[in-house]
Fold Trk system potassium uptake protein TrkA.
Amino acid sequence: MSKHLYAVIGLGRFGASICKELAREGMEVLAIDSDEEKVNEYKDIASHAVIADSTDEFALKDLGIRNIDHVIVAIGDNIHASILTTLILKELGIDMITVKAQNDYHEKVLNKIGADEVVHPERDMGKRIAHSIISSNILDYLELSDEHSVVEVKAGEKMDGKTLIDLDIRARFGCNVVAIKRDDDINVSPMADDVIYAGDVIIVIGADQDIHRFEKSLV
Ligand code: ADP
């Protein structure tokens, strides 16, 4: 099987971090930026680093972008360039296009023109950090949809020594405990009589409003 090929367009903070991580994982990455300095920085990190304006369809074709399986468009402030680049990639038939959105309107347009995945790292990270600020026992927070999330919480005194039946999280809050982590062990199909101890990490899935009630009452 041939190796999966990636391209990252835009080597700002976000694109650069994706590019570095893909390269670190041994992936084949083509790094593209219109800024020569940025490209020079990535010459030794990415498999190939080239200077190009991604809003120029011919430039992208010349680079052989059609051979790339997954393109990440990480152009930040220039929303116009991000949209135009996505449109060109779509027309060139790229299999998988992930685009970073700057704001909700940008996200809507990207979805409309057929971006396969739209990410909103600043907004999502902001939400995750806000939840961990509310309680230091909330370790992580992942939005699944506009209304559903997964939250990772550290069990405190309120849960210590109680079984899932005692806590009755599903009936009281409408959320489900999907896993319990204790040191290096992870129990991915917790039973009603499994006991939770302070310091365990429990992973809960549910509607945002239910998770909110659960956090207020037990975390
Ligand atoms: P971040 O917020 O992730 O730091 P930036 O907006 O600072 O993002 O960086 C975006 C990068 O995208 C810059 O390095 C910029 O040179 C590059 N870029 C912007 N427009 C284009 C384009 N049309 N073609 C290629 N690269 C571009």
Notes: The CA atoms of residues 87 and 113 lie 7 Å apart. The domain at 5-119 is CATH 3.40.50.720 (Rossmann fold). Residues 9-15, 32-35, 38, 53-55, 74-78, 81 surround adenosine-5'-diphosphate (CB under 6 Å). The chain is about 35% helix and 30% strand.
